[in-house]
């Protein structure tokens, strides 16, 4: 019913009735007694219509308020769906994505604006697709709430194992109309289980790392992020750890090579940066993974112990007054980290700039250039074709003060 139209009709009837009441002659065709009775009954009927109109208006206002409240409630639940930490999906019965929250888009590696309309089967691992289709049909025939596992291949190439919980959404006739999905990434849980089952030793650690977790690569000079709760482990290359003093000058805090860990968890400094000094490959471990594997804990403890020894060497270096001795000690610290035996002696397999050496020694680039030239003239060091420093055998200055 159109309430506005009905209200206008009632108002028009009231106006006509008022005009009728103003007439002094009886209504044509009616006796005075019948005319009076007709007017009285018409008045009652109009009053009932007015009451009905007011009741309809009140109900209409109530419906409008309920509609507005339901819109707000729907928006609230949509926000909860979108911001939920677990990946949620709504698909058709065939598996085409109709809705997805932010966590689901991140899990699948698809921008949020492009995820709707994509078949979920597109991201199912090829060997799992037949099982996926069969399970979809089975769950439409009867509701199942237990988890089932499938393999996903994300858009960025990652391969994940996920646990799925599905619920069939049905209409009033109990006909299935859509599927609600909850996805849970099992990758970390399976890594932890593997670490608990597979003891790690120095001879096989590289193989286990490469097979069971991604290697993250960083290029020379690239800053390495230090996320909270993650410990990085160096598989290849050298990482420079630095902070800043009150004058804004960079201070060397450590040189992290193969087999050593680093991260936010191993420092109390507010300003702390990690920079790749060469081509670097890293793997990351979470607190849960470390706690789950005593062998991994022992492996990381060995690396931390080695870092402690290096930190002591750097502290001793910073306390040395003679710049020549300080440079000599720094070269030996580098030798332990990245040194490789060659015919002439020990080659430092990274190319450090004079500015970086000066920063580590607490002096100027010009002074480092002069000291390196003197060491080269005295046949203490040499350079290969890549301009990498080679410490010539038996590099022990008889008197560093003469440099």
From TrEMBL:
One of its GO terms (molecular function) is DNA binding. Residues 73-143 form the PAS domain. Residues 321-396 form the HTH crp-type domain. SUPFAM superfamilies: cAMP-binding domain-like (SSF51206), PYP-like sensor domain (PAS domain) (SSF55785), Winged helix' DNA-binding domain (SSF46785). PROSITE patterns: HTH_CRP_1, HTH_CRP_2, PAS. InterPro entries: cNMP-bd_dom_sf, HTH_CRP, PAS, PAS-like_dom_sf, PAS_fold, RmlC-like_jellyroll, Tscrpt_reg_HTH_Crp-type_CS, WH_DNA-bd_sf. The keyword Lyase does not apply. Keywords: DNA-binding, Transcription, Transcription regulation. The keyword DNA-binding applies. NCBIfam families: sensory_box (TIGR00229). This is Regulatory protein CysR homolog. It comes from Planktothrix pseudagardhii.
């Amino acid at each position: 019913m159109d309430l506005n139209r009905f209200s206008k009709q009632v108002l028009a009837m009231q106006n006509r009735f008022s005009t009728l009441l103003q007439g002094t002659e009886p209504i044509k065709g009616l006796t005075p007694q019948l005319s009076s009775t007709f007017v009285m009954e018409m008045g009652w009927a109009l009053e009932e219509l007015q009451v009905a109109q007011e009741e309809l208006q009140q109900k209409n206002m109530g419906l409008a308020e309920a509609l507005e409240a339901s819109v707000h409630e729907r928006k609230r639940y949509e926000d909860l769906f979108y911001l939920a930490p677990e990946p949620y999906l709504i698909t058709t019965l065939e598996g085409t994505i109709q809705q997805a929250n932010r966590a689901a888009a991140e899990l699948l590696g698809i921008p949020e604006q492009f995820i709707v309309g994509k078949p979920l089967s597109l991201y199912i691992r090829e060997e799992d697709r037949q099982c996926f289709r069969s399970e979809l049909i089975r769950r439409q025939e009867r509701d199942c709430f237990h988890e089932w596992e499938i393999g996903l291949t994300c858009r960025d190439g990652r391969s994940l194992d996920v646990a799925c919980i599905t619920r069939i959404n049905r209409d009033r006739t109990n006909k299935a109309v859509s599927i609600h999905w909850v996805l849970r990434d099992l990758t970390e849980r399976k890594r932890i289980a593997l670490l608990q089952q597979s003891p790690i030793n120095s001879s096989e650690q590289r193989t286990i790392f490469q097979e069971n977790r991604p290697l993250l690569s960083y290029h020379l000079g690239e800053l390495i992020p230090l996320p909270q709760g993650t410990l990085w482990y160096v598989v290849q290359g050298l990482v420079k750890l630095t902070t800043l003093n009150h004058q804004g000058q960079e201070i060397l805090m450590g040189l992290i090579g193969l087999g050593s860990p680093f991260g936010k968890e191993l420092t109390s400094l507010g300003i702390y940066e990690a920079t790749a000094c060469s081509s670097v490959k890293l793997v990351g471990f979470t607190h849960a993974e470390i706690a789950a594997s005593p062998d991994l804990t022992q492996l990381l403890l060995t690396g931390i112990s080695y870092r402690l020894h290096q930190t002591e060497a750097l502290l001793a270096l910073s306390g040395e007054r003679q710049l020549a001795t300080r440079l000599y000690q720094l070269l030996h610290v580098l030798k332990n980290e990245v040194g490789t035996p060659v015919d002439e002696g020990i080659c430092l397999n990274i190319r450090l700039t004079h500015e970086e050496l000066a920063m580590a020694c607490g002096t100027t680039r010009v002074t480092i250039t002069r000291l390196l030239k003197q060491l080269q003239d005295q046949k203490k060091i040499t350079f290969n074709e890549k301009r990498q420093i080679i410490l010539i055998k038996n590099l022990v200055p008889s008197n560093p003060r003469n440099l």
